[in-house]
Amino acid sequence: MMQRKSRLLIIEDEQAILTGLQDLFVYHGYDVDVAQDGQLGLEKALQGNYDLIILDIMLPRLDGFAICDAIRHHSREQPLIILTAKTTDEDIITGLTLGADDYVAKPFSVRELVLRVEAVLRRSAKRRYEAAQLCLGTHLQIDTRTLVGTQPDHTEPILFTRREVEILQYLTQHHDRPVSREELLVEVWGYANGSRFETRTVDIHMAKIRRKIELNPKAPALLITVRGAGYRLLTGS
């Protein structure tokens, strides 16, 4: 039996880039669907069954941030990569906060983009739930299946992205030592070699996680930075 091709949806308004990406991923063995404006892209994203969506930010009719937000309200699990010329921390943080798995900045290396896509798909295929719940300190429990955190005496749940939970799971498994940024890129993001990728994704995710799990994110007691070594999760707090 022939193995099913992975299905990609590329939402990009620049015709030359869209054609180039479609040809690139068809060449690499993917089944590729495309959309050239935000509204059509969102309709396809919500109606189709895609293994991964590559999403530009600057789009006509509906921008990529709005699309990302709508996709995440529809599905917390849909793998999604942002492709954008907007590379300020604020723009990147916005995209990742809305639930994108990763971002690639224009102009980009096609080889890097292919590797990023392969990494996200590989991680999605291997997704495991080692435990139904993560307990962080004495004040927060996270259901790793629903991605919802709860706190005693708090009625409002805390919503996590799949990537944030994967990071916390990995740090929990290795709580006895600091985990480097490069190790996280390899083991959590699934990159073949973390040191090859110049990305602020790890640091931005850590800042997002701290805002959710720490009583005081400016003075973290659970997720600490070990200078020159990486990040460590103190599970015994």
List its salient traits.
single chain, 237 residues, alpha/beta, Rossmann fold, Arc Repressor Mutant, subunit A, 2 domains, five-stranded parallel beta sheet, four-stranded antiparallel beta sheet, 11 strands
Structure description:
- This protein is α/β, with parallel strands linked by helices.
- The chain has 2 domains: 7-125, Response regulator (Rossmann fold), CATH 3.40.50; 133-233, Orthogonal Bundle (Arc Repressor Mutant, subunit A).
- Helix content is 38%, strand content 19%.
- The chain is built from 8 helices and 11 strands.
- It has helices spanning 15-27, 38-47, 64-74, 89-97, 110-125, 162-173, 181-187, 201-213, and strands at 7-11, 31-35, 52-56, 80-84, 102-105, 133-136, 140-143, 148-150, 158-159, 223-226, 230-233.
- The protein has a 5-stranded parallel β-sheet, with helices on both faces.
- Strand 1 (7-11), helix 1 (15-27) and strand 2 form a beta-alpha-beta unit.
- Helix 2 (38-47) runs parallel beside helix 3 (64-74).
- The protein starts with 6 loop residues before the first strand and ends with a strand.
- 34% of the residues are buried.
- The mean pLDDT is 86.
